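A further point concerns the way the authors explain their paired sequence and structure data. Each protein is reduced to its one-letter sequence and a matching series of backbone shape codes. An entry of this sort, consisting of the sequence and the corresponding backbone structure tokens, reads as follows:
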Amino acid sequence: MQTERKTEILDAFIKLVSRFGIDKTTMQDVAKVAGISVGLIYKDFKNKEDLVEAYLERKMQQFSLFGQQILELDLPPEQLLREFIMGLYRTMIHLVIEDRGFLQFISDEASIKYMRRNYKKDEITKRLGKNVEIIMERGVREGLFEITDIPKTAGLFLSAFHIYFGMIFMNGTEDKILVGIDDMYSLLCRAIQNKN
């Protein structure tokens, strides 16, 4: 029963955060949507920061599942890396459009305020980076990629996309953004291809 209640509270919080953002979502609103008293929320979550943390944990699980699904595809490393990057940013576009809280989080508005003690954004980046490393390692083994420091290259690869995504997100449609991401992928992929 407690697990079910906790899930209902988190679902109500996510629903409200998606519509109104993290800052404008109150515990009273969550209680109203969940159909419980505010006091019951505090039995499962000490404060709003705990709810934010549970919200981000759920998002991390979604990204982890996405990463695992991509890694299971039977594709050559270059195509697998492209599918990973394109799928990641397609997912991010949809999350940002559908979820104001996620937009606040990736733009640092909310993460600075709520996540000082447990910075999940870095953990998401590390998990995604590990997926890129796995693909790059396979590409090096198969002689397709020429990379000397795979963890560093994977981190730089993802950072380049994160910065680029931030620059182009507000200036285009989903299709235009994805074309830009694909162009960026082609450019960066040429840098790691084995030239021999």
About this structure: The mean pLDDT is 85. The chain is about 80% helix and 0% strand.
